[in-house]
Specification:
By secondary structure, this protein is of the alpha+beta class. Helices cover 19% and strands 21% of the residues. The radius of gyration is 18 Å and the shape is elongated.
């Protein structure tokens, strides 16, 4: 089943349908809820990931705002318009919001990893330090950086 993406409109329709809040109340609360979501820590955001809206390429994002794109959470680190995520220097404007270690997938032999992607290998979390990395941290340690030991 695909993940549910809950935008403020989705939340509003749900509350209105359940006769809990009016449209006017939701419109007033939406920016407050969005600001509160942007105050969560990186580990907390994944508990409520479905509340973050999808990337709007035409929207002007402020520093600290979060959004989803291709099932990944991003945080704005420099004021920018959303379409800059597709440009080569997007890391100047947005960063991938780190997943908590319990959500990081195991290394897979059939997968090719890109720079900065994280994997679980044995009892450790590693981050690829190169693009097109198809080797395990054990087989090619120079292609990986040890991030943490998982208990």
């Amino acid at each position: 089943m695909p993940p549910i993406i809950a935008t403020n409109d989705f939340i509003a329709e749900t509350f209105i349908h359940n006769n809990q809040l009016t449209q006017q109340q939701i419109r007033a609360a939406a920016p407050i809820i969005e600001r509160a979501l942007n105050q969560l820590s990186d580990s907390e955001v994944y508990e409520v990931k479905f509340l973050y809206s999808e990337l709007d390429p035409n929207r002007e994002y402020q520093v600290g705002e979060r959004f989803q794109y291709q099932n990944q959470l991003y945080t704005t680190i420099q004021e920018s318009i959303g379409r800059k995520l597709f440009m080569n220097n997007s890391e100047d404007y947005f960063r991938v919001t780190d997943k908590p270690s319990y959500l990081i997938e195991n290394w897979k032999v059939s997968r090719i990893y890109q720079n900065n992607e994280k994997v679980r290998y044995g009892s450790h979390i590693y981050q690829s330090i190169l693009d097109n990395n198809m080797w395990s941290p054990q087989d090619f340690p120079a292609g990986w950086s040890l991030i943490e030991e998982v208990k």
